[in-house]
Hints:
The complex is a heterodimer of chains A (112) and B (114). By secondary structure, chain A is an all-beta fold. Chain A has no helices and eleven strands. Chain A has strands at 4-5, 11-14, 19-25, 32-38, 45-50, 54-58, 61-66, 71-76, 85-92, 101-102, 106-111. In chain A, strands 2, 4, 5, 9, 10 and 11 form a six-stranded mixed β-sheet that branches. Chain A has a five-stranded antiparallel β-sheet with strand order 1-3-8-7-6, with no helix packed on it. In chain A, a hairpin with a 6-residue loop joins strand 4 and strand 5. The mean pLDDT of chain A is 94. With 114 residues, chain B is an all-beta fold. Chain B is built from no helices and eleven strands. Chain B has strands spanning 5-7, 10-13, 19-24, 31-37, 44-50, 53-57, 65-68, 75-79, 88-95, 104-105, 109-113. In chain B, the strands form two sheets. In chain B, strands 2, 4, 5, 6, 9, 10 and 11 form a seven-stranded mixed β-sheet that branches. The radius of gyration of chain B is 13 Å and the shape is globular. Chain A binds chain B through residues 32, 34, 36, 42-46, 49, 51, 88, 90, 92, 94-105, and chain B through 30-31, 33, 35, 41-45, 48-50, 55-56, 58, 89, 91, 95, 97, 100-108.
Amino acid sequence: QKEVEQNSGPLSVPEGAIASLNCTYSDRGSQSFFWYRQYSGKSPELIMFIYSNGDKEDGRFTAQLNKASQYVSLLIRDSQPSDSATYLCAVNARQAGTALIFGKGTTLSVSS
Amino acid sequence: EPEVTQTPSHQVTQMGQEVILRCVPISNHLYFYWYRQILGQKVEFLVSFYNNEISEKSEIFDDQFSVERPDGSNFTLKIRSTKLEDSAMYFCASSDPSGGTEAFFGQGTRLTVV
């Protein structure tokens, strides 16, 4: 059974702080790793993807991947109240058409 | 910006009735997916579709479900005989394999079975 685990939170940070979200996965065959943001009642919105070990930065977001530890993280710098949402970690085998396996998500709350 | 569009946004149906959920994937994408999310639970994969065939399906996607691409733009999910436990948000997604495996989601259809 392929599993993706996330701490459900809530993770509470003050405005301007760094939010750190973590995810572990069980299937060593996973090759592609994604972070989606989901506002309440809305659909998942892709914010980052990473395929290789190390860091990948995009604006205020940094994704980190460690395949040996089967660990993915997302850092959000200068957190804003508008970042308050549930962040979903998803993985797949990096073959076109394969299923995304989602974690339950971590709820982030940024207070002003 | 291209997006996946789904209709209707909300559908209420009686138990045992058939429903069809519709999606228009991003135009140059080749892989199409259906996912569902029961309230308060995680997003779950149902099925992927490529070149007019199912390429992968989950255990959830049993005989009461079917998918179809009836024309060049629409992608549909049919639930033949709805059950109370089919109540969920259903998301359509599409991906362009030449650009990686990133999947982009539509806004969802909330299905309520009464």
